[in-house]
Recover the amino acids of this structure.
């Protein structure tokens, strides 16, 4: 990730446009914002090179992909093996988020599975067996109300 730099109104307009529709053409963005295509092109290159844009991606529908069961797992780790546990969790394909947190638990992990049975196997066979994990508390997500990236 790049170093922090100040975003001006043009940068924020571009980022907001892409956040709403990452497939928007430069011409359409220019038409909607009143910023020239050349300026948008230059700013996009600069935003990417400085790390303000980490990647362009899609958000696939969990219902369509079959990964319709999400769970939040709060983990306590052994201080000596915390980094190893973090890396092992991040390497599991079904794990979509690993965050270090403050409080009673050390890590917040979000996982996706196709069924409750698959989730149970994921937690008991793959996550609990990771060296350095001392305790965990899992919660199955009943309803996703909002899930977005931070505002620009």
């Amino acid at each position: 990730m790049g170093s922090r730099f100040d975003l001006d109104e043009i940068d924020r307009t571009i980022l907001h446009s892409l956040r709403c529709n990452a497939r928007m053409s430069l011409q359409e963005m220019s038409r909607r914002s009143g910023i020239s295509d050349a300026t948008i092109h230059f700013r996009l290159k600069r935003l990417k090179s400085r790390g303000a844009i980490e990647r362009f991606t899609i958000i696939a529908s969990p219902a369509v992909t079959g990964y319709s069961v999400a769970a939040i797992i709060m983990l306590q780790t052994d201080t000596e093996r915390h980094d190893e546990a973090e890396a092992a969790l991040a390497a599991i394909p079904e794990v979509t988020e690993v965050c270090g947190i403050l409080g009673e638990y050390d890590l917040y992990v979000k996982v996706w599975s196709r069924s409750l049975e698959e989730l149970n196997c994921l937690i008991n066979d793959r996550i609990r067996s990771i060296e350095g994990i001392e305790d965990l508390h899992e919660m199955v997500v009943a309803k996703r109300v909002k899930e977005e990236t931070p505002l620009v």
Observations:
- The chain is about 40% helix and 20% strand.
- The chain has a mean pLDDT of 93.
